[in-house]
Amino acid sequence: MNDAVDIQATIAGRVVVVAVTMDHAEVWSLDERQVKPLAVVVRHDAQAEHRHVKTGQFGHGHASEEGYARYFGDLAAVVAGANEIMIAGHGKGHSNMMETFAEFLSSQRSELFAKVSEMRYVDLPHTTGRELAALARKWKEEQRLTGK
After folding, report:
1. Mean pLDDT for the chain?
2. What's the rounded Cα separation, in Å, for the pair 94 and 115?
3. CATH code (residue 75)
4. Is residue 137 one of the residues assigned to a domain?
5. How far apart are CA 112 and CA 80, in angstroms?
6. Residue 10, domain extent
7. What is the side-by-side order of every strand in the sheet holding 24-29?
8. Per the domain annotation, does 51 fall within a domain?
């Protein structure tokens, strides 16, 4: 539990960028000197594996959506103290965890959704955390220049 308190204290008051994928999320600050994420949140599937099920069960024929409420809840708890949240994701449709996480925040944690200032598509598998932080600094500058 001490680690969770330390992470929340580290994130408190910062602008953070969250890279969300189906299985894990990394939280980065916009600090150009940062070399590792402030936090990593991992999705824990009750069955610990992706498996196929009969069509109609679990929505779209896969049980891979299990554990998202807990995953997103854990991620929301980690970033709760941030002043501003930028979300990055990749994928389309049901694979777009950025949009799914934003929808979770909008419906379940509206006070955190109000802190989301940016949502951007990024090629996460080919983007390092430091590159992501640099992109977030660029987005922040664009916000400043456009007044948004």
Report:
1. 85
2. 24
3. 3.30.420.60
4. yes
5. 6
6. 2-44+64-146
7. 39-42, 24-29, 15-20, 84-89, 116-121
8. no
Round to whole Å and give the CA distance between 85 and 123: 19
**Is the Cβ–Cβ distance between 148 and 86 less than 8 Å?**
no
103, part of any domain: yes
In a domain, 55, yes or no: no
Q: What is the mean pLDDT of residues 90-119?
A: 91
103 compared with 4, residue with greater pLDDT: 103
Please tell me the pTM assigned to this model.
0.82
pLDDT in tens, 22-65: 999 999 999 989 899 999 999 987 554 455 444 444 444 444 45
What secondary structure does DSSP assign to 2-67, as a single string? HHHHHHHHHHTT-EEEEEE-SSEEEEEES-TT--S-SEEEE---TTSS--B--TTTTTTSB-TTTT
Q: How many domains does the chain have?
A: 1
Question: How many angstroms separate the Cα of 34 from the Cα of each of 88, 128, 147?
Answer: 18, 12, 27
pLDDT of residue 17: 97
